[in-house]
Specification:
The protein is of the alpha+beta class and 71 residues long. The protein is built from two helices and four strands, in the order αββββα.
Length: 71
C-alpha cells in the first residue's frame, strides 16, 4: 500500500502535467492563422492538439516560432 505522504508527493508532481494538457493555448502557423486548442503531446517533429474535440497532429515546421516553443 502506498503511504499517504508518498501519494501526496506524487499527486503534487503530476498535477502540472494535467493542468498543461487542459489549458487552451493560441497556436499560430507561419501564415499568421491562429486557433485555440489544448496541447496533447509532442514528439519533436509534430505537435498534437485537441481542437474542438478533434485530435489534430501538426508538423512543428509549419508553426510560428512562439507556437513551436509552446510545443
Amino acid at each position: 500500500m502506498i503511504s499517504k505522504p508518498l501519494l501526496l508527493t506524487l499527486l503534487a508532481l503530476l498535477a502540472p502535467l494535467f493542468a498543461r494538457a487542459q489549458t487552451l493555448h493560441p497556436w499560430t502557423d507561419l501564415q499568421g492563422r491562429t486557433l485555440q486548442a489544448t496541447f496533447v503531446k509532442s514528439d519533436g517533429t509534430t505537435v498534437t492538439i485537441n481542437w474542438n474535440g478533434q485530435v489534430v497532429p501538426i508538423p512543428l515546421a509549419t508553426l510560428s516560432p512562439a507556437s513551436q516553443e509552446l510545443a
